[in-house]
Please model this.
Amino acid sequence: MSSFEVVVYISQGCPYCEKVRTQLNDWGIEYEVRNVSLHKEYFNELRAKKVLELLLHM
Model:
């Protein structure tokens, strides 16, 4: 494991989230999962970092 902390934000039923998790598992990379569908505080973290705005404009 590298010295970087990996955090994966997911939402229920997101196929792209599952692809990312599968690839990280295949590579043996440890990560923390934060489900924005179940925990509003994680959703708010993404909003505060303007990540949601970036995703909506892609």
Q: What stands out?
A: The helical segments are 15-27, 40-48, 51-56.
